[in-house]
Amino acid sequence: MEQVGKVEKIxxxxxVISVKRVSACGTSCKSCSASCKEVSxxxxxxxxxxxxxxxxxxxxxxxENEVMLKHIAVLYGLPLVIMIITIFLVQMILTSPNKxxxxxVASLFSLVISFYLLKAYDNREMRKNTLKFTIGKKL
Length: 139
What we know:
With 139 residues, the chain is of the alpha+beta class.
């Protein structure tokens, strides 16, 4: 996955790069309720002396596709799996005539639970620093 970022600070062999978030909603951000109102995301990465990068330069940042695909699978797959398991369990356990309504409410509640699980997963992955960013080239 490639992104474009601006070098904000260089400290030895570490660079702090501001990456502008790309929005899927286009230019009408005022009408959108998504969290893309954040202007940029800060990325820290190692640099080589041969890159000849200065503060203010725009660079291409690459991430490993396998790691990104793993994160995407967890972020979309975990809520789906939890929701399907919840519906299945409620349907098997309950015998009341309103079990469809109860399973629908329980599945929505499972999405709330998966939100907090994903938040904990994201915090753990950020502490482990599994996302490795590398500078592809200077633009």
